[in-house]
Amino acid sequence: MVAFSSHVQPYNGFMAVHAIHAVCSHDCPDSCAVLVTVNAEGRAVKIAGDPSQPVTRGFLCGKVARYLDRVYAPGRVLYPMRRRPGIAKGPQSRGREHEAFERISWDEALDAVSARLRAISDRYGPESILPYSYAGTIGVLGYGSMDRRFFHRLGASRLDRTICSEAGGQAWNLVYGKKLGMATEDFRLAKLILAWGANVHGNNIHLWPFIEEARRNGARLVVIDPYRTRTAALADRHIAIRPGTDVALALGLMHVLLNEGLEDRAYIAAMTHGFEQLAARAREYTPERVAAWTGIAPSEIEQLAREYATTRPAALRLNYGVQRCENGGTAVRAIAMLPALTGAWKHRGGGAQLSTSGAFAWDKNALERPDLALASPLGRLGRVVNMCALGHALTQLDAHAGDGPPVHALFVYNSNPAAVAPNHNAVCRGLLRPDLFTVVHEQFFTDTTDYADFVLPATTFLEHTDVQGAYGHYFVQLSQQAIEPRGETRSNVWLFGQLAQRMGFPEACFRDTPEEMIHQALAIGPDGRSTNPGMEHITFEDLERQGHIALAIHADPEAHPFLPYTSGPLATPSGKIELYSQTLAAASLDALPGFNPPIESRWSETAKKYPLELLARKNDNYMNSTFANLPGHRQMEARTNQKLEIHPQDAASRGVAEGDPVRVSNDRGAIELTAMLNAHLPLGVVAARLDWAKQHPAGANVNVLTSERLTDLGAGATFYSTLVEVEKAENRE
Q: Is 307 domain-assigned?
């Protein structure tokens, strides 16, 4: 382990205080470089942003600045635990969850879990075992490496990890072929910045200083979002669009700029495919027609289109909230086409950013070893189960319905599905099945551990080694282990390697160390350098020494700024930016973006019974459900915790006043919250925040209202296509 330079003082011949370079592995585009100060006793005493990392620039978000509160929290799960005999699964009282479990050794846990998985596989088939994980860590090893090897070799079902970004990612790739975007640092050069569904100040804070620098130099910030986020409140203009109508607005902007001849014809001719077809489609979306859907005045649509098309450079920060509607994939496709029509990509400080993850060419085959499935009892890869339909997967017990056997074992890590998965009530009904064997690898007692047969203690990013890219910048980073794991916590790599050996899998890859796996991810060649495209200048030793290294495309941004999509060919069927998608046409789908109101929206039949559109929002100071149990973080969210935000007119028509208890319901479930009037919401829209169910008096959260319906592209979650009704509830005295 290499200690990075810091204020180091000798102590009895040892370094009394030293700093270790780590990387925040939580699901955020910033992937911050972190310096962890460790004292002579091996305790982390300070955590700070690395000032030498060009995006982190020495500061951390409010969530991670208090990360030591999480590492040393008294509620950490520190030892393997097994459910006590006679204790039923289900919600436990906060702070007393440990009473449902008894401490056991790792040997006992590994033997028992492996034996049970083997028995389930033998009786029901290996596909009856379902892993469930997502981005509790986005470190390359922690997110998907030894775990994938283990489940491939076992023959388990595969999880379609679509809950967060798949709809938008597929949509972007249909247009551009690869998820690239303008460099975060180049936003400082923009003269107009559109933040479309992007709460930069809440969950992409390291972009904010570059936006502020641009504004000091005369740039304007316009936010398009149904909700008045932190970012919207600080913007030059907030456009409060109705949920699920982003496709219509994007096409309306196209209509105006094409009607007024504001497109860049030379760029379009050189770099795009299908312009004439798109232009014909856009002619249908007049500002007046779009205004009826979006709630935005025709004059404002015209003004925004002209401003965007005539300001250079113009930057567009598009985030994944846009794609969490039924038409979310199409929305991202349409919005992503705007910089192609104006030629914004040609100008440094112009273009767009959804994700930069396509630039990181990790050797996933070496890490995940899908070839191991050939040695499984199936002799092939297992079936695929969509993570957004977990409730259905756990409650569908007819062996002849669907593809493959019912799920009889669930292995959860890097996620908290009892809080974050849609259709919460169905998920919990499935988790309550006495015949479902559930293992949870976790740092705390969460909503999901309440249903576990075994709870296994997991490390934080300070307690293991990993390598990481980003989806908001272009730096490869090494995260070094800063402290010894607390208690008997263990990493994903260790856990699944040990389980594989207990299962008797003979392959040597199950004994690989984290350092060996990092070499595999980097595809280190005989000369010690990576052979991955764009990483050929990177060595493991340089990463150890420097902590972060820019990808080749971003190695010299001043002399050679990265301007994606300005030359070809691109990784699309036509080799160009596809305004008309050949891939969708071949699948007999609409090759052009078009607006279809979501099934759950104010235009649907369902709205007659449930007329309010719900935004099931994330908290600014949590990371999905992570941090929701920590008192300091909860205090930062105290104003909106357990609240339903509602427009005063919508409240008045229901006899609801500020502070009243309200019942929010639809056919899937109901939750009682406290009314909070918010005049910045569009009429007919309400908002509530995601929280742990166990933090609510009735053991529920906002996902009792959301559905398992999937997005139009990518089979993602549709959290923001949810209809509800609100009524005043009886006083909770």
A: yes
